[in-house]
Amino acid sequence: MALLFSILFFLISSVTACDRCVHQTKTAYFSKASALSSGACGYGSLALGFSGEHVAAGVPTLFKDGAGCGACFQIRCKDTALCSKEGTRVILTDLNQHNQTDFVLSSRAFTAMAQKGLDQDILKRGIVDVNTRGFLVNTRKKNLSVRVEESSQKPNYLSIKLLYQGGQTEVVGIDVAEVGSSNWSFMSRNHGAVWDTSRVPAGALQFRFIVTSGYDGKWIWAKSVLPAGWKVGVIYDSGVQINDIAQEGCSPCDTGSWK
Predict the structure, then answer these.
(1) Among the three residues 81, 114, 134, which one is the final residue of a domain in this structure?
(2) Is position 257 within any domain?
(3) Is residue 250 part of a domain?
(4) What protein family is recorded (predicted)?
(5) What CATH code is carried by the domain that includes residue 198?
(6) Choice between 2 and 82, residue whose per-residue pLDDT is larger
(7) In this structure, are 203 and 227 located in the same domain?
(8) How would you label 224-245 residue by residue, b for 16+ Cβ within 10 Å and e otherwise?
C-alpha cells in the first residue's frame, strides 16, 4: 500500500496549478444512452439517474483503466452559431474506442450543447469541435455510496461498486477492515468502478479510500459502511462526501463561468 500511495505524488509543474484547464478536442454521440450506461464502468442502468442521461464515454487517457469512471466534464462546441456558451455537463460512464474523438456523448447530452431549436442541426453534424474542462459535482448531493455486487459471496469474496464519488477526484486505492479494527486489507480494481477482495474481514466493515487531491492524494476514511449482515444488490451510504479537487498544470487557467 505504501508503494501505491507513493505513486500519487509527483513534482509540481512550473505551469499554473488549475482545476479548470480547458482542452480542445472533438466529440460524437451514440443514439442510445443505454449503450454508454452498460459500458466499461459497470454502472448499468444506475448511470441514467446520475445526470439526466447526460453520460459519456472517454478515450483511455480519460478512462484511466477505470479510475476516470464518474468524472464530470463540461463540454461546449466551438461553433457559436450552432451552440450555446454553457454547453453540456456529462458524467463519464464508459470507455471510448472511437478513433476520431476524445468523447462520445449520449444523444441527449450532445443536443444539449445546441442553441434552442437547433437540436437536429447538431445531430446532423455527427462530430463537432469542442472545448472541455472538468468540474466538481455532487450528484443529487449524495454521499459516496457502496453497492454490493451480486458476485459477492460471504464470507469469502466481496465485490463493491462505487457511486456518487464527486466528479473531480479519482479513487485510486481502497482498504477494508472490520469496524474498530486496524487490520486493513487492500481491495483491487476489478473493472471500472468495481473493486473486490477475497480477504473479507468479519463483522461490520469500514473503508478508507485513497483519492487524488490537489497535485497528490489523501485518505478519506468512512468509519462504518457495511453492516455485519450486508446483502448483495444493496446500496450502502458511506457517510462521507468527496469534495476535493485534483489539479492540472495549464496556463491560462479558465476560472470563469460558461454561461
Answers:
(1) 134
(2) no
(3) no
(4) Belongs to the expansin family.
(5) 2.60.40.760
(6) 82
(7) yes
(8) ebbeeebeeeeebebebebebb
pLDDT digits (tens, 9 = 90+) for 66-80: 999 988 899 999 999
Q: Cα separation of 186 and 195, whole Å?
A: 10
Joined grid coordinates for residue 189: 480494481
Q: What is the CATH number of the domain that holds 92?
A: 2.40.40.10
pTM for this prediction: 0.86
Please report which confidence band the pLDDT of residue 14 belongs to, taking 50, 70 and 90 as the band edges. very low
C-alpha to C-alpha distance for 235 and 49, rounded to whole angstroms:
14
Pairing between β-strand 128-134 and β-strand 171-178 as defined by DSSP bridges: unpaired
Residue 124 lies inside a defined structural domain of this protein = yes
Are 144 and 230 in a shared domain?
Answer: yes
Report the alpha-carbon distance of residue 53 to residue 108 in Å, rounded. Answer: 7
229 CB-near residues (< 8 Å, 6+ apart)? none
Instruction: Please state the rounded mean pLDDT for residues 108-133.
Output: 95
If we measure between CA atoms, which residue out of 12, 6, 5, 1 comes closest to residue 214? Answer: 12
Based on the domain organization, do 129 and 150 belong to the same domain? no
In the chain, the number of structural domains is 2
Distances (CA, A) of 259 to 89, 200, 255: 12, 48, 12
Q: Are residues 193 and 101 in the same domain?
A: no
Instruction: Tell how many helices (H) and how many strands (E) occur in the chain.
Output: 5, 16
What pLDDT is attached to residue 21?
Answer: 84
Do the bridges between strand 88-95 and strand 55-58 make them parallel or antiparallel, or are there none, so unpaired?
A: parallel
What integer best gives the mean pLDDT of the chain? 86
Structural domain that includes position 231: 139-237
What is the Cα–Cα distance from 22 to 45, expressed in whole angstroms?
A: 30
How confident is the model over 90-96, as a mean pLDDT? Answer: 92
